[in-house]
Amino acid sequence: MSGNRGVVYLGQGKVEVQKIDYPKMQDPRGKKIEHGVILRVVSTNICGSDQHMVRGRTTAQVGLVLGHEITGEVIEKGRDVERMQIGDLVSVPFNVACGRCRSCKEQHTGVCLTVNPARAGGAYGYVDMGDWTGGQAEYVMVPYADFNLLKLPDRDKAMEKIRDLTCLSDILPTGYHGAVTAGVGPGSTVYIAGAGPVGMAAAASARLLGAAVVIVGDVNPVRLAHAKAVGFEIADLSLDIPLADQIAALLGEPEVDCAVDCVGFEARGHGHDGVQHEAPATVLNSLMQVTRVAGNIGIPGLYVTDDPGAVDAAAKKGALSIRFGLGWAKSHSFHTGQTPVMKYNRQLMQAIMWDRINIAEIVGVEVISLDDAPKGYHEFDAGVPKKFVMDPHKLFGAA
């Protein structure tokens, strides 16, 4: 078997499905490995983080094969792989992690110390994350397979739930991590900034964790309508009504117990002219305003160290005008960084299998072909309330 195709980044605003190399059992530096597997990709998703690259807002190199949200079937394995078998259906955490370093042993798999020579943390098909080939393709190699892969039990039942289980590789654990680090618990009042797929996953996670009220805020009316339709309260940030006042109208007070930033560095605010302008610190500053004293703020939204398209020189280096003094005065706790997917994915898999969370409906999963990837990127960038999931081998129909 030697053929393969994948979604390739060709420069700002452009992706294309091209023939790419069939995966080899080697790391990005060309070293042969025996701890990996080759997967036939069953599903692979378009993520908002991919969009940051495609918009030209990172230093991603032309020719990068995209995709870090992967579910697949093991079709080849190295001789050091003991727990995974040919034919296993598996979820792939977007974090590439060795399982051996201090970070991995402490469950901080998002900042593995060995898989990326440039910095802590590795990921498939992502800028500055170790040059691991992405999984928006027909086939992909996963290293340290025994450690990284989550086997999905009962293949037939898993395929029946594949639209939900495809969210295990990133979006659902990321939303859940945001809710957990924000301190969501039974009876909490929660504000979620952003009604995109991660924001909706965070809202669903907050509900799973027992929140009494979950409010989702955005400027996109279509996404807000979807959030309302699946059972969440909303705050329309396109209106000339302060967020605190909208929260007060719902809760009787202008604050929530905790908040989650699911927007990140491409946040937009309103200028004096009433027009939306990019304002990368606006979400974090607004969350400090509406979170009660001693409350927590989870920040799974992406912030980068290099942003060539930023609004000013400081933001190009990730330096934002954050009102940190306000957060200090209110004794807020902040939690940032990549989600350690393996910390949560097994429990979330069980929640899906036992119908405790209908994540595909909540994030708006829409299945498309690999060839339709460019169209999916275009529609997602336009702000539709959908999570595009690619089916490279047309397996969803059989399920």
From TrEMBL:
The keyword Zinc applies. Its cofactor is Zn(2+). Residues 35-154 form the Alcohol dehydrogenase-like N-terminal domain. Keywords: Metal-binding, NAD, Oxidoreductase, Zinc. InterPro entries: ADH-like_N, ADH_Zn_CS, AlaDH/PNT_NAD(H)-bd, GroES-like_sf, HCHO_DH_non_GSH, NAD(P)-bd_dom_sf. Residues 183-233 form the Alanine dehydrogenase/pyridine nucleotide transhydrogenase NAD(H)-binding domain. CDD domains: PFDH_like. GO terms for molecular function: formaldehyde dehydrogenase (NAD+) activity. Its EC number is 1.2.1.46. It is an enzyme of class 1 (oxidoreductase). The keyword NAD applies. Coiled coil: none annotated. NCBIfam families: fdhA_non_GSH (TIGR02819). Belongs to the zinc-containing alcohol dehydrogenase family. This is Formaldehyde dehydrogenase, glutathione-independent. It comes from Pseudomonas lalucatii. The gene is fdhA.
